[in-house]
Each structure stands twice: as C-alpha cells, then as structure tokens.
C-alpha cells in the first residue's frame, strides 16, 4: 500500500487524480469511505477524474459512460468493459492505495 494523500484533502464525491506506482488512479470520497479506480475510461481512454460523480458512480465527461465506484462496472453505454478498482485503506487519517490488488 502506498500513501496517496490525507483523507482531509478529498472533497466528498469529487474526483481526485493521483498516480500510484506509475498507475493513474481516480479517488472518490464518499463520507468516510474512499474508492480508487483506474483513471481511464474503458470506452474512450480519457481521464475519469475529469468527470463528475453521481448516484450511479463516476461519469466519463466525453460520452457519458458511468462506472460503479465499488465494482468498476459500467452502468450506462457506450462503455461495456469495467475499469479496475483498487484496494484502499484509511489509516490515521491518510489514504493508502494498492494498485497490485484489484477488487473487481
């Protein structure tokens, strides 16, 4: 696990771009939980961190595909393939991500 940021640096339901071991990751805080997904839409290969978070997940700004924060599965077209979801641990107010462990 690699320390990415302090939990206090993340705004609730606002994408936060980070690089973990040369892997681009988007973090999304949801209350006291944090989700980490690959920061690359599986449909158009653009950064998900530039999109918005809704009740359905994180939405790609280019074509509107929405990805579930827990599973990485798309819930709306045109994307049909999931994005990777990474293991997250919050310790002592810091957010740690392991890009070698996918949870989907």
UniProtKB/TrEMBL annotation:
Q: Where does the Rieske domain lie?
A: 2-97
Q: Which SUPFAM superfamilies match?
A: ISP domain
Which top-level group of life is the source organism from? Bacteria
Keywords annotated in UniProt: 2Fe-2S, Iron, Iron-sulfur, Metal-binding
**Coiled-coil stretches:** none
PROSITE patterns linked to this entry: RIESKE
**UniProt xrefs under PANTHER family:** 3-PHENYLPROPIONATE_CINNAMIC ACID DIOXYGENASE FERREDOXIN SUBUNIT (PTHR21496:SF23), FERREDOXIN-RELATED (PTHR21496)
Q: Protein name, please? A: Non-heme iron oxygenase ferredoxin subunit
């Amino acid at each position: 696990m690699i320390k990415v940021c302090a939990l206090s640096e993340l705004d609730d339901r606002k994408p936060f771009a980070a690089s973990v071991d040369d892997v681009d990751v988007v973090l999304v805080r949801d209350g006291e939980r944090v989700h980490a997904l690959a920061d690359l839409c599986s449909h158009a290969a653009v950064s998900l961190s530039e999109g918005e978070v809704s009740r359905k997940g994180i939405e790609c700004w280019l074509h509107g595909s929405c990805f579930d924060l827990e599973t990485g599965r798309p819930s709306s077209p045109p994307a049909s393939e999931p994005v990777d979801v990474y293991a997250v641990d919050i310790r002592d107010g810091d957010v740690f991500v392991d890009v070698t462990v996918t949870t989907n």
